[in-house]
Amino acid sequence: MGRVKYLLIILAGLLSASVSAHGVDDGTRQFLANNQGMAIIPFAYIGAKHMITGYDHLLFLVGVIFFLFRPRDILIYVSLFTLGHSATLLFGVFYNTNINANLIDAVIGLSIVYKGLDNLGGLRRLLGFQPNTRAAVFIFGLFHGFGLATKLQEFNTGQDGLLQNLLAFNVGVEIGQFSALAFILILLAFWRRYDSYLKLSLMTNTLLMSGGLILAIYQMTGYFYGY
Length: 227
Known about the structure:
80% helix; mainly alpha; globular
């Protein structure tokens, strides 16, 4: 029970942070509102910070790599996720594709639920077959990219230097993702030395699903009640 209580406290902390993870601090908000023209370094920094503090994205990545033990498999799955969110991030902002942020973030929450359920073999039992996990990671990556795009679309960044700024933001996102992923992999590599890794896999993925479900419910509530 002590371990369960400790994990629940961690989850609660992550969820409270993740609810505001897509929020923009005052300094960034002011910069985005006032920026004119190309600003490579600031946009790269904002992208990196957004990914590192984007706990919904990171929770999904934890689910993706939780049962991946070979570096080649990790590289393939993370690359698919990267390709997906990079494509829709650039497309969404450059072509001003407007999608409700609450709906997108709700799907992102459900992507965490999906991956946790998939890790536990629940999808095979429910559907009678195993969905293509690589395709699922890529498709959810598309939604995660739209989630990033909706945040930039909240600000009138202007057309001057837009493509360069978007590319810089995307590079920053990848730098942030790589940094966070390296930290996560170090922690998982250390934990995998102990029997508790597999023994607590059910609890860990259940907590992931619970977190994703709470995020989805929160965002859908925001969609219907306008916050």
